[in-house]
Design brief:
Helices cover 28% and strands 21% of the residues. By secondary structure, the protein is α+β, with helices and mostly antiparallel strands. Strands 4-3-2-1-5 form a five-stranded antiparallel β-sheet. The chain is globular and about 35 Å long. The two termini are 27 Å apart.
């Protein structure tokens, strides 16, 4: 219960503070290894097209477990959340870890993701997302920028 309440507050702060001020914040990033992958994505669009300023990535959270970079939650300038399921290039996370995160974000039908699971798929997150579900599964959530 605490994780859900605390994570809801953290996400609200991220959306309120970073979403509104992202354009004026410096491009510095967390030094966590999981953040190195997502650093260059700041300011790019999710999804890739159509490219609009409202779909620019302004904040990113790395999702890791047992030393594996599993994925990244990104916040767009318009406040919408997306999940990047593993890297586009680089070592893939274990399929089971990707499946756990997908279930935690409300994409429980992992069968439809089997071919692309952990391979950089961009997945929109619904309004009723609770980051506490990811934390409750033992994942570490790290703020990158």
């Amino acid at each position: 219960m605490f994780h859900q309440a605390a994570s809801g507050i953290v996400l609200a702060l991220l959306l309120g503070v970073y979403g509104a001020q992202a354009a004026t914040r410096p491009a510095s990033s967390n030094t966590a290894p999981a953040c190195h992958y997502i650093d260059p994505w700041r300011g790019t669009n999710v999804p890739i097209s159509p490219a609009t300023s409202s779909s620019d990535i302004v904040h990113a959270l790395a999702i890791t477990k047992a030393g594996n970079d599993v994925g990244w939650l990104v916040v767009r300038r318009d406040g919408k959340l997306w999940y990047l399921d593993g890297p586009v290039r680089g070592p893939l996370p274990p399929m089971q870890l990707s499946a756990e995160v997908l279930r935690a974000i409300g994409h429980g039908s992992v069968a439809m993701h089997t071919q692309s699971i952990g391979r950089g798929r961009m997945i929109p997150i619904g309004e009723h997302f609770d980051i506490g579900h990811i934390i409750a599964q033992g994942f570490l959530v790290t703020s990158c920028y």
